[in-house]
Amino acid sequence: MDSSSTRHSPKTRTVRNPSPNTVLAVLAVGTFLAPLDSSIVNIALPYIAQDLKVSLTAVSWVATAYLLTSAALLLSMGRVGDMWGLRNLYVWGLLIFGAGSAACALSHTLPVLLGARVLQAVGAAMLFAAGPAIVVRTFPPKKRGAALGIVSLAVAAGLTVGPALGGVLVGTFGWQSIFIINIPLSVVAAGIAWFVLSEEPPAGESFDMLGAVLAGGALLSLLGAVTEVETYGIGSIEIIGALLATVFLGVSFVWWERQATHPMVDMRLFRSRAFSAGLGAAVLAYMAMFSVIFTMPFYLLGAKGLPATFAGLLLTATPLAMAALAPFVGRLTDTIGSRLLSTVGLVVLAAGLVVISTLHANSAPWFIGLALFIVGCGMAIFQTPNTAAVMQATPRARAGVGSAFVAEARNIGMMLGIALTAAIVTLQMGGSAGALEATGLLEPSVAAMLIAGMSFAMRVSAGLALIGAALSWFFRDDTASKVEQER
Question: What's the predicted TM-score (pTM) here?
Fold first, then answer.
């Protein structure tokens, strides 16, 4: 009997032979809820501002606090999962997320709501860190890609379905409803997860508190700078100070992790080309994808003047493509490995971005939908193989940290992509950028500047996707996958 079989013997499980489909369903719920809540809240912000009598600038922190908190805690939660047990991390993540959702729904002031969102984000970080790691520890290598395909689909669905679902809930039941729906799902999923998921013995290592503080501080200062760069300006003392703090904390973190007896992050992970190149490609891929997610609503509503319902239907082309391809790509990953698929996915993504860069005020809706569908195909072909490569390059004892890095790459890419695209479009529009805050059809001259800015941003993003493709092809191989399958 090999070491893997020993670790997963019936003595370490809370139930006998749980259905893999049941395990995957429970994981899908958690990995859907956390990204859903990061996207669903945006459409509710004006209603929250009106109800709580605060400015739109102040209420934007309802979204920002969630993103920053979850990003800052991801690595720490991954390490906690490796030490404490992934089942414990996942179950408590669901319960804390549900408790935070209830607190959000009951909030009557902005400070209370922000505190509740932070609590939600703690649970979300636990879920993000546990999900792919549980897949690695539950499914054998030859079935792992298919399982990760479902998990990737759940994450993508949460990020893309949020705005449309939020609009229906807010318009029908009020802004509190976007939080209330999380409560029963979280509680039921936590109960099932407790009886279904494997229980593994604690690692018996101490938690690296200083490493957690340094890593969290570095990520918080970096993403804070990215979030506020449009407010203060790239050359402001606030942004420069935040970036300097990021460098100082990051260097200190690397130095400390090399000295620590039980480091939060084993820096030897980055010696693996599959691990390092996979994370780098993921950051670039999400930067490219979120340039589309950020700009398309402005284009469809402001430049094209489409009804909101029709624009929403067009935007579903991307998640529909991901939903259609993700399971198939996952199974294909188990057969041919990750290198070719992840590279092809980023090339297809770049092609979709180039097509979007050709859009103009009179582009046919079917052509727009086709371009968005190509983008979704590219991400679907890339996402699962890349995640599989990173996780297969991560030692089983560090699966939680590996899973956290995958989610961290997504968060960083998402926020960097939005910030970069916003900067490009704003510079292109100059003094007319304020028109983006208005609703309805833009003036033709303003719409032309918006389209020009979007076109340039899409070409830049296509370049980023191609750099990611080069990382996937030239700086990574499937050695880690082959070693894993041989164990």
Answer: 0.80
